[in-house]
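Below is the record:
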Amino acid sequence: METVKKGLVQLATALTVVGLGLWGSAEVVNAKSTVYSTGAAALKGAPQGVYLGSGTTSDYFTIDKTVATASGNNAANLVDAGSPAGTENSAIQISKNGVKDSWGSIWSKQQSFDLSKPETASMWIYASGENSANVGDGMAFVLQNGGTNVYSGPGESMGVWGVPDSLFAKTDVASTAIQNSWALEFDTYPNGKGGIPTQPSYSFLDPLHLSPITTWDFADQKPSTFDVNGDTASTQTAIENTHIASNYPGDSGTYTETSDYANGNRKLNYTVQPWVGNYYYYTMKHEGFLDEGPGGSGNLSDHRWHHITVDYTPPTTAGGKGSMTYTYNDKDPDTGLPIDSNDYATVPIDLSKFNLSSGQSKVRWGFTGSTGDATENNLVVFDQLPGQAQTEATAKLEEQDGGAYSEVTDGGSISGGKAVKLTYTFGRTDGDEDWKSVNANLTIPSGLNITSGTIDYPDASYKDSNGNKVDVSELSASSDGSSQSLSVPLAGEGLTMSGTQHATITLTGTAKNLATDSTGVSQNAETSYFIGTNATSSAKTPKFTITPKVSDKLSMDIAKDAGTMKVNYGGSEQAVVVGTAIPSAATDPGATNVPQPSDITIHPSINGVAQDTVKESDIQSSALPYNYYFDYKIDNNKLQPGANTVSFYATYDTGTDKATSTTVNAIVTAGTVGFGHTSGDMTFEPTVLTGDGQSHVINRADDWTLNVDDSLTKDSTWQVTAKTAGMFADADNVAVKTPLDGSLIYTDTAGNETTLNDSDSPVIASGTSTGEDTSTNIAADWKDDTGIRLRINGNAVEGNYEGTIDWSFVNSVSTS
């Protein structure tokens, strides 16, 4: 059973429901990447990014060394970083481990983040201490409508949030924050006890006699922590782990004030002043909360680089809200390549919070951070700057067989001596600026002999001094011999691409020959970089094996119509690949000393991972009971969801003769079922309250798309269920969590109506698999009186409401 939190539903003023924005259920990939225990090591091993400058000199940033609202000097700096591509690379350093009570801020020179159009920021972050688990305080990515000389305060504020009074006096916390801003925090130090002292007890002094007369154990009180989930004091829960979250620092609705009263005849001996009466503590609401686990062992302060992409979508209507989606751990820090992540959140962006002037749409962006008694290294490497270019790159390896080229997939193989072609394609996809001054730094598998190369530019006007040819004489082997590097200058001093222009680098050569008795040489996936002054992209070759030069004495093939080539992922059924490895002598009636199946060794691999070898005689086929056929059985737990590449080559050694076959590939599918494409916005028809005291059902405004992608085996069944805790008043507009007087309902084709709640899970859709890959929109057949709709009761009050739908998949495999 798979459970996916898939939907946010909102009810707007005049009871218009907007934004059932579904989010994906991508598989979690928790790549255990390289650990860097010190800041120096983290900088040396930093992922490739854009060169930002050094010191305080930058084309993109301003670093004001002093700010009126902060004491001391700005610790932010631009520092050199290591480069996997061997080119210039730099990082923003907000704070250093061991430097207490520091502050840092760095801002874009221009207000260049345009809230009227889609924008993307893509960056690597490192937020870890060195010798202590007590790290802090974190940093924040900030959008703000102001200058470059702004900063809020030290410690838990991270330089952007409001600062509560240290003596528990009543404070307008929002007024102490950076104004007209939105911030995304990376908080490595969850703050405890809301500023209340953490010692177990304190003495109260009689104001007349100044002698202790009682004690008060603060642990018995229940002040919330500064970092909380929830909208009101009664519903807030403390955040105990490192986390990522967002909100508006300068907005009073971000903070909740609570006060308690100390006995009026007593005063609290705390710090330097006696204190009596009300004391106030404050909590900060965390929107789009992502729990990253405990410090030192979670996904934030674990001495690893982590990638985050921030995608902004502008409002679709005048006066409407935009949205911001931030996705964490969506690239592999060791390769720079995308990986699946479901560690993400989407939050609304209210443009009115920025106090924009008439006709203005752009704001400034940057980072702030701080340390207190706890310290850490806070580092940022940008691979895509906001307001700049969005880019992409791919790598494709092919081998020549019979005059035609065929692609080598991940986990595949190439026979020694075969002609190969390696093609890199890279270009600009979107953004506000051209992709500027792009050059290529290629890393090529060591087992390929590259003999020539060409460059295809976006149009014929691009020429370089080498006649658009790659100078392969510049190839150099890595120190350990595992790869080769090649720097390819483009268009003289770098290629600039606009629109959706792309360029291609094509390298040709051969796979290196191996001795015929070799078992093959594995080639790692190698990452190449395409680096401009304002964006960087990377591409990876497949992992593959070079096998010995093929002998015509032994042939190999796959019987693709036999065996079991498709199973359900996570089931108990084995996949079975039927193949043949047959010596040519076996087809010669006059041949002597013919190798037998007991002489032939099968060398299998699954998705590029070599498996144990096996004698052909030990797995002779039952499906095709001929002497030289075999059944290779694969346990389900060795398969990944979707397509799996299973490769084989064979060898024999009779003592007097040796041979190696070609490598053949088979595709085994591990079927799954889950959500595919879903509508970005799912809305209900705008409805105005009539005041008649009656309930009304509101229909969907547009056709909804809820695609179920099914690749299960034939006759497997699946069901989709749904439940919800209901819809509640938007916390930005009300002080108390208020439910909508109404509910989401589901009506089936027979007219049976079910109210969605948080305890039952009615079946919304079901299906039986055909054995083929299918995609079915389960909402396609919903009529005006069926499917999911909204019932509004007579006492409903106008306002903004929101809630979530939890969707679940239940699937079963075919008994046949």
Remarks:
- The chain has a mean pLDDT of 82.
- Residues 729 and 774 are 39 Å apart (CA to CA).
- The chain has four domains: 31-384, 392-543, 554-661, 674-812.
